[in-house]
Amino acid sequence: MSDLRTEIVSKVLNSWDTSTPSQTAASETISEKIFNFIHAHPSCTSNDVVDNTNVDLGRASATLLALYQKGKVDRKKYPNPKPDGKRDNVFVYWTTVDSHKEKGVPRLMKPKKQKKPYIHKALANLEAPKPVYQMPRMKQVVIKEAPTKQEFDAEQFVKGLTLSEVKALYEALKGYFA
Asked: Are 60 and 53 within 8 A, CB to CB?
């Protein structure tokens, strides 16, 4: 096993260390590559971009849309020169700024119109179910009981008072009965 390990280290891992930086990292991003191609070839379509930059169609279309929204490229709709049955029209692109690092005027995309839901012909003739009528709930009314008349109990009244309060009460009542 140690022989296999030394083979891996000596051949594979060491070959990774000796590689040049241009081999390990891409010199241009996909966005820069597509922008530079459009700048060199104005009035190109997304298919031209795919054929000449070695970027797949989905990624190229997404990048073209992002560049358009950022305002770095502009586009116009033209009839498809190679009608393939998929698209009637294609966009032709050109740059609006001189380099990829410059900022363009951002564009806001228009929201798509919402489609009406499709209703099958057999279901279109059916009547909609009638709404069920539900009686409104009655308010809960709380009836307060009338307070009952209690008799005055002088003993209970005096029990809670202190001696000084009883004396003051006595002096106040003495004026009524004198």
From this structure: yes
